[in-house]
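To the team - D-allose complex, inputs and output below.
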Amino acid sequence: MPDRSAVKGVLRTQHIETPSWAFGNSGTRFKVFAQEGIPRDAFEKIDDAATVHRFTGVAPSVAVHIPWDAVSDYAELAQHAKNAGVTIGAVNPNVFQDDDYRLGSLCNPDPAVRRKAVGHFLECIDIMDVTGSRDLSVWLADGLNYPGQDSISARQERLEESLRVVYDRLGEQQRMLLEYKFFEPAFYATDVPDWGTSYAHCLELGPKAQVLVDTGHHAPGTNIEFIVALLRRKGRLGGFHFNSRFYADDDLMVGAADPYQLFRIMSEIVFGGGLDPNSGVAFMLDQCHNIEPKIPALIRSVMNVQEATAKALLVDTDALRTAQQAGDVLDANAVLVDAFATDVRPLLAELREDMGLDPDPIAAYHRSGHAAKIRAERVGGAAAGWGA
Ligand code: AOS
Ligand code: ZN
Ligand code: ZN
Ligand code: ZN
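Output:
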Protein backbone atom coordinates (compact mmCIF):
# COMPACT_ATOMS: atom_id res chain seq x y z
CA MET A 1 0.00 0.00 0.00
CA PRO A 2 1.24 3.52 -0.74
CA ASP A 3 2.72 5.28 2.26
CA ARG A 4 0.40 7.75 4.02
CA SER A 5 2.94 10.51 4.41
CA ALA A 6 4.05 10.19 0.78
CA VAL A 7 0.42 10.58 -0.28
CA LYS A 8 0.10 13.71 1.86
CA GLY A 9 3.34 15.03 0.39
CA VAL A 10 1.96 14.78 -3.15
CA LEU A 11 -1.39 16.30 -2.15
CA ARG A 12 0.39 19.35 -0.78
CA THR A 13 1.87 20.07 -4.21
CA GLN A 14 -1.35 19.69 -6.21
CA HIS A 15 -2.68 23.13 -7.04
CA ILE A 16 -6.25 23.72 -8.14
CA GLU A 17 -6.99 26.97 -9.97
CA THR A 18 -10.29 28.75 -9.40
CA PRO A 19 -12.07 30.67 -12.20
CA SER A 20 -12.83 34.37 -11.63
CA TRP A 21 -16.17 33.95 -13.40
CA ALA A 22 -17.42 31.44 -10.82
CA PHE A 23 -17.47 34.22 -8.19
CA GLY A 24 -19.82 36.43 -10.19
CA ASN A 25 -23.54 36.08 -10.74
CA SER A 26 -24.45 33.48 -13.30
CA GLY A 27 -27.47 31.64 -14.52
CA THR A 28 -29.09 29.95 -17.44
CA ARG A 29 -30.75 31.58 -20.42
CA PHE A 30 -33.92 31.54 -18.33
CA LYS A 31 -32.78 33.53 -15.31
CA VAL A 32 -29.76 34.87 -13.48
CA PHE A 33 -30.44 34.83 -9.73
CA ALA A 34 -28.45 37.70 -8.23
CA GLN A 35 -26.74 36.95 -4.94
CA GLU A 36 -25.60 39.35 -2.23
CA GLY A 37 -21.95 40.05 -1.57
CA ILE A 38 -20.93 39.39 -5.17
CA PRO A 39 -17.63 40.95 -6.35
CA ARG A 40 -18.03 44.29 -8.08
CA ASP A 41 -14.85 44.10 -10.10
CA ALA A 42 -11.86 41.92 -10.94
CA PHE A 43 -10.06 42.97 -7.75
CA GLU A 44 -12.87 41.64 -5.57
CA LYS A 45 -13.06 38.41 -7.57
CA ILE A 46 -9.38 37.92 -6.79
CA ASP A 47 -10.13 38.59 -3.11
CA ASP A 48 -12.69 35.78 -3.22
CA ALA A 49 -10.23 33.42 -4.88
CA ALA A 50 -7.76 34.30 -2.12
CA THR A 51 -10.43 33.40 0.44
CA VAL A 52 -10.85 29.97 -1.13
CA HIS A 53 -7.08 29.54 -0.97
CA ARG A 54 -6.95 30.67 2.65
CA PHE A 55 -9.29 27.88 3.72
CA THR A 56 -8.03 25.11 1.43
CA GLY A 57 -4.32 25.89 1.10
CA VAL A 58 -4.17 24.40 -2.41
CA ALA A 59 -5.86 26.99 -4.65
CA PRO A 60 -3.11 29.60 -5.06
CA SER A 61 -4.09 30.95 -8.49
CA VAL A 62 -7.15 32.33 -10.24
CA ALA A 63 -7.95 32.29 -13.96
CA VAL A 64 -9.23 35.49 -15.51
CA HIS A 65 -11.54 36.09 -18.47
CA ILE A 66 -10.93 39.12 -20.68
CA PRO A 67 -12.80 41.48 -21.05
CA TRP A 68 -14.97 40.34 -18.10
CA ASP A 69 -11.99 41.05 -15.85
CA ALA A 70 -10.59 43.94 -17.86
CA VAL A 71 -8.76 46.60 -15.82
CA SER A 72 -6.69 49.59 -16.84
CA ASP A 73 -3.52 48.32 -15.18
CA TYR A 74 -2.73 44.59 -15.10
CA ALA A 75 0.44 45.09 -13.09
CA GLU A 76 -1.74 46.56 -10.38
CA LEU A 77 -4.13 43.57 -10.62
CA ALA A 78 -1.19 41.16 -10.35
CA GLN A 79 0.17 43.09 -7.37
CA HIS A 80 -3.27 43.02 -5.76
CA ALA A 81 -3.36 39.23 -6.21
CA LYS A 82 0.10 38.89 -4.72
CA ASN A 83 -0.86 40.96 -1.68
CA ALA A 84 -3.93 38.76 -1.24
CA GLY A 85 -1.78 35.63 -1.34
CA VAL A 86 -2.59 34.32 -4.83
CA THR A 87 -1.40 34.75 -8.41
CA ILE A 88 -3.18 35.30 -11.69
CA GLY A 89 -3.32 32.03 -13.60
CA ALA A 90 -4.68 31.28 -17.05
CA VAL A 91 -5.89 34.14 -19.21
CA ASN A 92 -9.10 33.31 -21.11
CA PRO A 93 -9.80 35.46 -24.17
CA ASN A 94 -13.47 36.07 -24.90
CA VAL A 95 -14.39 36.00 -28.58
CA PHE A 96 -18.02 35.07 -28.19
CA GLN A 97 -19.82 38.12 -26.83
CA ASP A 98 -19.59 40.61 -29.62
CA ASP A 99 -22.05 41.12 -32.48
CA ASP A 100 -19.16 40.74 -34.91
CA TYR A 101 -18.84 37.08 -33.90
CA ARG A 102 -22.26 35.96 -35.13
CA LEU A 103 -20.59 33.70 -37.70
CA GLY A 104 -17.59 32.86 -35.56
CA SER A 105 -14.29 34.37 -34.50
CA LEU A 106 -11.07 32.70 -35.69
CA CYS A 107 -13.13 30.75 -38.29
CA ASN A 108 -15.30 33.65 -39.42
CA PRO A 109 -15.62 33.95 -43.21
CA ASP A 110 -14.85 37.70 -42.97
CA PRO A 111 -11.10 38.32 -42.73
CA ALA A 112 -11.69 41.59 -40.84
CA VAL A 113 -13.53 39.72 -38.07
CA ARG A 114 -10.77 37.11 -37.92
CA ARG A 115 -8.21 39.90 -37.59
CA LYS A 116 -10.21 41.42 -34.75
CA ALA A 117 -10.37 38.07 -32.91
CA VAL A 118 -6.66 37.38 -33.43
CA GLY A 119 -5.97 40.92 -32.18
CA HIS A 120 -7.84 40.14 -28.97
CA PHE A 121 -5.79 36.99 -28.45
CA LEU A 122 -2.58 38.97 -28.93
CA GLU A 123 -3.78 41.53 -26.39
CA CYS A 124 -4.38 38.68 -23.95
CA ILE A 125 -0.78 37.52 -24.42
CA ASP A 126 0.35 41.09 -23.67
CA ILE A 127 -1.63 40.79 -20.43
CA MET A 128 0.05 37.44 -19.67
CA ASP A 129 3.44 39.12 -20.08
CA VAL A 130 2.46 41.59 -17.36
CA THR A 131 0.74 39.17 -14.98
CA GLY A 132 3.32 36.42 -15.43
CA SER A 133 0.63 33.96 -16.51
CA ARG A 134 1.77 30.81 -18.27
CA ASP A 135 -1.41 29.71 -20.04
CA LEU A 136 -3.65 31.20 -22.68
CA SER A 137 -6.87 29.17 -22.45
CA VAL A 138 -8.57 29.12 -25.81
CA TRP A 139 -12.21 28.18 -26.13
CA LEU A 140 -14.07 29.12 -29.28
CA ALA A 141 -17.83 29.34 -29.70
CA ASP A 142 -17.26 28.94 -33.47
CA GLY A 143 -19.45 26.55 -35.37
CA LEU A 144 -22.44 26.06 -37.60
CA ASN A 145 -26.12 25.76 -36.84
CA TYR A 146 -27.17 24.44 -40.23
CA PRO A 147 -25.66 22.07 -42.78
CA GLY A 148 -24.36 24.10 -45.70
CA GLN A 149 -24.08 27.30 -43.64
CA ASP A 150 -20.35 27.49 -44.34
CA SER A 151 -17.57 25.22 -45.58
CA ILE A 152 -16.37 22.96 -42.76
CA SER A 153 -12.94 22.58 -44.32
CA ALA A 154 -12.48 26.27 -45.20
CA ARG A 155 -13.20 27.02 -41.54
CA GLN A 156 -10.50 24.57 -40.46
CA GLU A 157 -8.06 26.34 -42.75
CA ARG A 158 -8.95 29.76 -41.29
CA LEU A 159 -8.61 28.29 -37.82
CA GLU A 160 -5.16 26.95 -38.62
CA GLU A 161 -4.00 30.30 -39.99
CA SER A 162 -5.40 32.29 -37.07
CA LEU A 163 -4.02 29.97 -34.40
CA ARG A 164 -0.59 30.11 -36.07
CA VAL A 165 -0.39 33.89 -35.62
CA VAL A 166 -1.39 33.57 -31.95
CA TYR A 167 1.00 30.66 -31.32
CA ASP A 168 3.95 32.49 -32.84
CA ARG A 169 3.42 35.38 -30.43
CA LEU A 170 3.73 33.14 -27.32
CA GLY A 171 6.78 33.69 -25.14
CA GLU A 172 9.26 30.94 -24.25
CA GLN A 173 7.47 30.00 -21.04
CA GLN A 174 3.95 30.51 -22.32
CA ARG A 175 1.51 27.95 -23.66
CA MET A 176 -1.75 27.82 -25.56
CA LEU A 177 -4.35 25.40 -24.19
CA LEU A 178 -6.93 24.52 -26.83
CA GLU A 179 -10.27 23.50 -25.37
CA TYR A 180 -12.83 21.45 -27.29
CA LYS A 181 -16.59 21.10 -26.93
CA PHE A 182 -18.92 19.08 -29.08
CA PHE A 183 -21.85 21.48 -29.17
CA GLU A 184 -23.21 24.79 -27.89
CA PRO A 185 -23.63 27.55 -28.85
CA ALA A 186 -23.39 25.97 -32.30
CA PHE A 187 -25.67 22.99 -32.64
CA TYR A 188 -24.88 21.37 -35.98
CA ALA A 189 -21.08 21.45 -36.13
CA THR A 190 -18.52 22.95 -33.82
CA ASP A 191 -15.11 23.93 -35.22
CA VAL A 192 -13.16 22.33 -32.34
CA PRO A 193 -15.61 19.62 -31.27
CA ASP A 194 -13.36 16.95 -29.79
CA TRP A 195 -9.93 16.08 -28.41
CA GLY A 196 -8.82 14.74 -31.80
CA THR A 197 -9.40 18.07 -33.55
CA SER A 198 -7.68 19.93 -30.75
CA TYR A 199 -4.79 17.46 -30.76
CA ALA A 200 -4.36 17.74 -34.55
CA HIS A 201 -4.12 21.53 -34.33
CA CYS A 202 -1.76 21.35 -31.35
CA LEU A 203 0.54 18.90 -33.15
CA GLU A 204 0.75 21.18 -36.14
CA LEU A 205 1.31 24.30 -34.03
CA GLY A 206 4.12 22.97 -31.85
CA PRO A 207 4.96 21.85 -28.32
CA LYS A 208 3.60 24.96 -26.61
CA ALA A 209 0.09 24.03 -27.81
CA GLN A 210 -1.66 21.58 -25.53
CA VAL A 211 -5.13 20.11 -25.25
CA LEU A 212 -7.47 21.35 -22.52
CA VAL A 213 -10.02 18.80 -21.31
CA ASP A 214 -13.21 20.31 -19.90
CA THR A 215 -14.94 17.40 -18.23
CA GLY A 216 -18.38 18.77 -19.17
CA HIS A 217 -17.66 18.91 -22.89
CA HIS A 218 -18.27 15.31 -23.91
CA ALA A 219 -21.20 13.31 -25.18
CA PRO A 220 -22.85 11.13 -22.52
CA GLY A 221 -20.99 7.88 -22.02
CA THR A 222 -17.65 9.18 -23.33
CA ASN A 223 -14.70 7.53 -21.58
CA ILE A 224 -12.89 10.68 -20.48
CA GLU A 225 -10.14 8.82 -18.64
CA PHE A 226 -9.16 7.15 -21.91
CA ILE A 227 -8.70 10.59 -23.51
CA VAL A 228 -6.69 11.72 -20.50
CA ALA A 229 -4.41 8.67 -20.61
CA LEU A 230 -3.82 9.04 -24.34
CA LEU A 231 -3.08 12.77 -24.28
CA ARG A 232 -0.81 12.32 -21.29
CA ARG A 233 1.17 9.59 -23.10
CA LYS A 234 1.55 11.89 -26.09
CA GLY A 235 2.70 14.75 -23.86
CA ARG A 236 -0.20 16.93 -24.96
CA LEU A 237 -2.41 17.12 -21.89
CA GLY A 238 -2.27 20.79 -20.98
CA GLY A 239 -4.82 20.59 -18.23
CA PHE A 240 -8.42 20.41 -17.13
CA HIS A 241 -11.48 22.49 -16.72
CA PHE A 242 -13.17 20.51 -13.98
CA ASN A 243 -16.91 20.56 -13.39
CA SER A 244 -19.66 17.98 -13.45
CA ARG A 245 -22.46 17.26 -15.80
CA PHE A 246 -25.65 15.30 -15.68
CA TYR A 247 -26.78 16.29 -19.17
CA ALA A 248 -24.74 18.80 -21.15
CA ASP A 249 -22.23 21.52 -20.22
CA ASP A 250 -23.88 21.80 -16.80
CA ASP A 251 -20.88 23.42 -15.06
CA LEU A 252 -21.95 22.03 -11.68
CA MET A 253 -19.48 21.33 -8.89
CA VAL A 254 -16.77 18.87 -9.85
CA GLY A 255 -17.32 15.47 -8.27
CA ALA A 256 -21.01 16.12 -7.66
CA ALA A 257 -22.42 14.06 -10.51
CA ASP A 258 -19.99 11.18 -10.71
CA PRO A 259 -17.18 10.99 -8.13
CA TYR A 260 -16.18 7.59 -9.51
CA GLN A 261 -15.51 9.09 -12.93
CA LEU A 262 -13.43 11.84 -11.33
CA PHE A 263 -11.48 9.17 -9.46
CA ARG A 264 -10.87 7.24 -12.69
CA ILE A 265 -9.62 10.42 -14.37
CA MET A 266 -7.31 11.20 -11.45
CA SER A 267 -6.07 7.61 -11.44
CA GLU A 268 -4.93 8.00 -15.06
CA ILE A 269 -3.22 11.23 -14.03
CA VAL A 270 -1.40 9.42 -11.23
CA PHE A 271 -0.45 6.47 -13.49
CA GLY A 272 0.80 8.91 -16.14
CA GLY A 273 2.90 11.02 -13.76
CA GLY A 274 0.59 13.99 -14.23
CA LEU A 275 0.81 15.09 -10.60
CA ASP A 276 4.48 15.91 -10.94
CA PRO A 277 4.55 19.71 -10.77
CA ASN A 278 6.79 19.64 -13.89
CA SER A 279 4.26 17.63 -15.90
CA GLY A 280 2.51 20.81 -16.97
CA VAL A 281 -0.96 19.46 -16.24
CA ALA A 282 -3.05 22.40 -15.00
CA PHE A 283 -5.95 21.56 -12.69
CA MET A 284 -8.49 24.31 -13.16
CA LEU A 285 -12.15 24.60 -12.23
CA ASP A 286 -14.67 25.90 -14.76
CA GLN A 287 -17.97 26.13 -12.95
CA CYS A 288 -21.00 28.31 -12.40
CA HIS A 289 -22.81 28.44 -9.08
CA ASN A 290 -26.21 29.64 -10.13
CA ILE A 291 -28.22 28.98 -6.97
CA GLU A 292 -25.69 28.04 -4.28
CA PRO A 293 -23.34 30.43 -2.45
CA LYS A 294 -20.18 30.72 -4.49
CA ILE A 295 -17.24 30.75 -2.09
CA PRO A 296 -18.34 27.64 -0.13
CA ALA A 297 -19.17 25.92 -3.45
CA LEU A 298 -15.63 26.54 -4.66
CA ILE A 299 -14.14 25.38 -1.36
CA ARG A 300 -16.22 22.19 -1.70
CA SER A 301 -15.06 21.78 -5.32
CA VAL A 302 -11.39 22.07 -4.38
CA MET A 303 -11.99 19.47 -1.65
CA ASN A 304 -13.73 17.15 -4.13
CA VAL A 305 -10.72 17.24 -6.47
CA GLN A 306 -8.44 16.59 -3.51
CA GLU A 307 -10.54 13.62 -2.40
CA ALA A 308 -10.49 12.03 -5.84
CA THR A 309 -6.75 12.63 -6.07
CA ALA A 310 -6.11 11.14 -2.63
CA LYS A 311 -8.05 8.01 -3.59
CA ALA A 312 -6.13 7.75 -6.86
CA LEU A 313 -2.86 8.02 -4.92
CA LEU A 314 -4.01 5.19 -2.65
CA VAL A 315 -4.34 2.72 -5.53
CA ASP A 316 -2.03 -0.17 -4.74
CA THR A 317 -0.14 -0.07 -8.02
CA ASP A 318 1.99 -3.15 -7.22
CA ALA A 319 -1.09 -5.25 -6.56
CA LEU A 320 -2.72 -3.77 -9.64
CA ARG A 321 0.23 -4.65 -11.89
CA THR A 322 0.42 -8.17 -10.46
CA ALA A 323 -3.27 -8.76 -11.09
CA GLN A 324 -3.05 -7.25 -14.58
CA GLN A 325 -0.09 -9.40 -15.53
CA ALA A 326 -1.79 -12.50 -14.18
CA GLY A 327 -4.83 -11.63 -16.25
CA ASP A 328 -6.88 -11.57 -13.07
CA VAL A 329 -9.71 -9.33 -14.17
CA LEU A 330 -11.62 -9.34 -10.90
CA ASP A 331 -8.61 -8.72 -8.68
CA ALA A 332 -7.37 -5.89 -10.87
CA ASN A 333 -10.77 -4.24 -10.78
CA ALA A 334 -10.99 -4.81 -7.01
CA VAL A 335 -7.71 -2.95 -6.44
CA LEU A 336 -9.18 0.14 -8.09
CA VAL A 337 -12.55 -0.16 -6.39
CA ASP A 338 -10.89 -0.59 -2.97
CA ALA A 339 -9.01 2.67 -3.39
CA PHE A 340 -12.19 4.43 -4.49
CA ALA A 341 -14.09 3.06 -1.50
CA THR A 342 -11.51 4.35 0.98
CA ASP A 343 -12.70 7.21 3.17
CA VAL A 344 -9.89 9.73 2.66
CA ARG A 345 -11.49 12.50 4.69
CA PRO A 346 -9.47 11.73 7.85
CA LEU A 347 -6.25 11.78 5.78
CA LEU A 348 -7.18 15.13 4.26
CA ALA A 349 -8.14 16.56 7.65
CA GLU A 350 -4.71 15.51 8.91
CA LEU A 351 -3.03 17.06 5.87
CA ARG A 352 -4.81 20.36 6.53
CA GLU A 353 -3.73 20.34 10.14
CA ASP A 354 -0.14 19.68 9.01
CA MET A 355 -0.51 22.74 6.78
CA GLY A 356 -1.80 24.89 9.65
CA LEU A 357 -5.34 24.94 8.28
CA ASP A 358 -8.67 24.07 9.81
CA PRO A 359 -9.38 20.39 9.10
CA ASP A 360 -12.93 21.30 8.01
CA PRO A 361 -12.65 24.22 5.56
CA ILE A 362 -16.40 24.61 4.99
CA ALA A 363 -17.23 24.82 8.70
CA ALA A 364 -14.29 27.15 9.22
CA TYR A 365 -15.55 29.40 6.43
CA HIS A 366 -19.03 29.56 7.93
CA ARG A 367 -17.59 30.31 11.38
CA SER A 368 -15.37 33.07 10.00
CA GLY A 369 -18.26 35.47 9.35
CA HIS A 370 -16.77 36.23 5.94
CA ALA A 371 -20.07 35.85 4.07
CA ALA A 372 -21.77 38.48 6.25
CA LYS A 373 -18.76 40.76 5.89
CA ILE A 374 -18.80 40.80 2.07
CA ARG A 375 -22.59 41.13 2.05
CA ALA A 376 -22.24 44.31 4.08
CA GLU A 377 -19.21 45.69 2.26
CA ARG A 378 -20.36 45.10 -1.28
CA VAL A 379 -23.74 46.81 -1.28
CA GLY A 380 -24.65 49.37 -3.85
CA GLY A 381 -22.23 48.35 -6.56
CA ALA A 382 -23.04 46.58 -9.79
CA ALA A 383 -21.94 42.99 -9.48
CA ALA A 384 -19.42 41.82 -12.03
CA GLY A 385 -21.07 38.64 -13.13
CA TRP A 386 -20.94 36.17 -15.97
CA GLY A 387 -21.12 38.16 -19.14
CA ALA A 388 -20.65 41.46 -17.37
C1 AOS B 1 -17.29 27.03 -22.52
O1 AOS B 1 -18.19 26.19 -22.56
C2 AOS B 1 -15.99 26.74 -22.00
O2 AOS B 1 -16.07 25.79 -20.97
C3 AOS B 1 -15.03 27.88 -21.69
O3 AOS B 1 -13.98 27.44 -20.91
C4 AOS B 1 -15.60 29.19 -21.19
O4 AOS B 1 -14.73 30.21 -21.50
C5 AOS B 1 -15.86 29.28 -19.70
O5 AOS B 1 -16.76 28.24 -19.35
C6 AOS B 1 -16.45 30.58 -19.24
O6 AOS B 1 -17.76 30.71 -19.69
ZN1 ZN C 1 -14.23 25.22 -19.99
ZN1 ZN D 1 -17.92 24.77 -20.97
ZN1 ZN E 1 -18.55 23.52 -18.63
